[in-house]
Specification:
Distance between the termini: 34 Å
Structural class: alpha/beta
Strand order of the largest sheet: 7-6-5-11-12
Number of strands: 15
Largest sheet: 5 strands, parallel
Helix content: 40-55%
Length: 567
């Protein structure tokens, strides 16, 4: 990472100053490397002189002026061509400015890196699992669940860009009462299609989509379930019901580019006996006790939990929590993930402490389980909340919204806020073909670059051939402030990826994408890209445009969006 390179340069400067006996030899504390809020203060700023002054005082008892230390460090900055200027500020901050020559060379680096540009080695191949969506397999995806899908998928993209080995998983809740109720509803609709006077079960699913599923079932399987005893028919229907709904969910999520490496069945935990095995393990170590005819997990033994939790009810039926315990045992102990991220709606926040208690009971570091909570989504049109679905009758589906505004608008708008913030999704704004719509603005900027490159090709400049050479002498012509500002903005991508991993949220990418698009458009306004009277400068600016296209496409890709070549 560029930030790490700057840190290494400062550490080398400190070591050189110590070797020259300008600074006392003390252990070098970890310096903080920051981006100044004002561009006039340089590209990076560090407090290394301040923390080193504190270290000197601690080691020797001698009080040293941080500015004197800062000057000694500045005087020993390696002359490797990367740093163009060093300034002291305030009580001893060191501000560093990247050299113009080094910045110019980065255009070639970006072009050569292509779609891999911005990758950082933070993860070093650690195995992470991101489990997201995980809706009950009882029907289409509610649009509120689309935020879960977009957040989980985009976070996975970012983690992969940071060199983590990521598995995307959908946990299928096919062992609970809701799925059983759905199967009974599907069975009733199936019989109704055959002319039977079959009532829906109490609390059954009312949506017309169940009739569509029943029609699929009838077309595929004929009338055979109508010939079976009810209990036998319901049991035989379960795997088919699951298959129909998951196929619909998979197709629906594919509309916004979301895919999964694994669809994990909750029922499999019972079929394999893992729930019973893990609960017995916890019982043997005193974490499961019997009380009031039920089995309880002793969550109150662990920090953050005031009460115990039921795992097996007094009627002998397991709770969802029993499945969760076995499921996380499977993730960490059987499949050996280093870290697991569960993406949950904010109304599940009360379950977080008990899951941390489970980790401790299983002898695992609770920090290895990250539960990412996201807030609600309101669907708005013309300032009014949209509540009803024309098709389903009781909720708005992801498919309906995608059909109206497109997949890229769905993804971008659902990423604009941090997970803990609520979102108002404005349908009118999402389809607007103007710069008020951030999705349109970013994608149009990419299309504009593609248009510039096509025009250059028509005029005989051949941008692809230029990219293969990327002549350093030509790149030295990039001296205009708008050109250098654009290069600096492109180089921020590493920091943006690092920030998204820190926060476990890629919402910053939407803002970065808009800033990058705006920075390119300012460059395009101030600098004529193709000028037949100045071929070398045109070549340099075309290379810069190629680099900008590369980075903008990369950011769109991380957000799971397309990079259109024309609009």
């Amino acid at each position: 990472m560029l930030r790490e390179q700057v840190k290494d340069i400062l550490i080398q400067a400190v070591q050189a100053a110590e070797a020259d006996h300008v600074l006392p030899p003390v252990p070098i504390p970890e310096p903080e490397i920051m981006r100044p809020k004002q561009a006039s203060h340089g590209d990076y700023s560090s407090n290394v002189a301040l923390v080193l002054a504190s270290a000197v005082k601690k080691a020797t008892g001698e009080k040293v002026n941080p500015r004197q230390i800062g000057q000694a460090i500045a005087d020993h900055i390696p002359q490797n061509g990367m740093i163009g200027a060093v300034e002291l500020a305030g009580p001893g901050f060191i501000n560093l400015r990247l050299s113009d020559t080094w910045l110019q060379e980065q255009v070639r680096t970006i072009i050569q890196a292509g779609s891999d540009f911005g990758r950082i080695d933070r993860g070093k191949g650690q195995r992470w699992q991101v489990e997201f969506v995980s809706a009950n397999p009882t029907g289409p995806l509610h649009f509120g669940g689309a935020r879960n899908a977009v957040l989980g998928d985009s976070l996975s993209n970012v983690l992969e860009a940071a060199s983590y080995d990521v598995q995307r998983e959908f946990y299928v809740n096919d062992a609970g009462t809701q799925f059983q109720l759905f199967v009974e509803t599907l069975y009733a609709r199936y019989l109704q299609l055959l002319g039977r006077d079959e009532p829906l079960p109490e609390g059954g699913y009312q949506g017309s989509y169940v009739v569509d599923y029943a029609r699929q079932l009838l077309e595929r399987e004929g009338e055979r379930f109508a010939q079976m005893p009810r209990a036998e028919a319901l049991q035989a229907l379960k795997p088919l019901a699951r298959e129909i709904v998951l196929a619909d969910l998979e197709d629906e999520l594919a509309l916004i580019g979301v895919r999964f490496d694994n669809w994990f069945s909750e029922q499999s935990l019972y079929d394999e006996g893992l729930v019973e095995q893990v609960l017995e393990l916890l019982r043997e170590q005193g974490d499961i006790v019997e009380k009031d005819g039920a089995l309880w997990f002793r969550a109150s033994k662990y920090p953050g939990n005031e009460k115990d939790e039921v795992v097996i009810r007094s009627n002998g039926l397991p709770t969802y929590f029993a499945s969760d315990i076995a499921y996380h045992y499977d993730k960490f102990i059987r499949r050996k993930f280093d870290t697991v991220v569960d993406v949950w709606a904010v109304d599940h926040q009360g379950h977080v402490p008990r899951m941390k208690a489970v980790m401790m009971a299983l002898g695992l570091d609770p920090e290895r389980l990250i539960i990412l909570l996201y807030n609600l989504v309101k669907l708005m049109r013309g300032g009014q909340e949209v509540k009803m679905s024309k098709r389903a009758g009781e909720f708005v589906t992801l498919r309906e919204v995608v059909q109206e505004v497109g997949p890229d608008s769905v993804r971008f708008m659902l990423l604009t806020r941090s997970p803990e913030s609520a979102i108002e999704f404005d349908l009118s704004l999402a389809v607007a073909q103007n710069n008020e719509n951030p999705v349109y603005y970013v994608q149009y900027s990419h299309a504009r670059i593609c248009s510039i490159l096509r025009r250059a090709q028509e005029l005989g400049f051949h941008p692809d051939a230029l990219a293969d050479q990327a002549d350093p002498e030509v790149l030295k012509l990039l001296t205009h402030p708008a050109e250098l500002t654009l290069i600096r903005k492109m180089l921020e991508l590493e920091d943006q990826i690092d920030f998204a991993v820190d926060k476990l949220s890629p919402h910053n990418l939407t803002h970065y994408a808009m800033e990058l698009a705006r920075t390119f458009n300012l460059f395009y306004r101030d600098c004529k890209v193709v000028d037949a009277s100045n071929v070398p400068l045109s070549q340099a600016r075309l290379l810069l445009s190629l680099a900008a296209r590369t980075v903008l496409a990369r950011v769109l890709s991380l957000m799971g969006m397309s990079a259109p070549e024309s609009m």
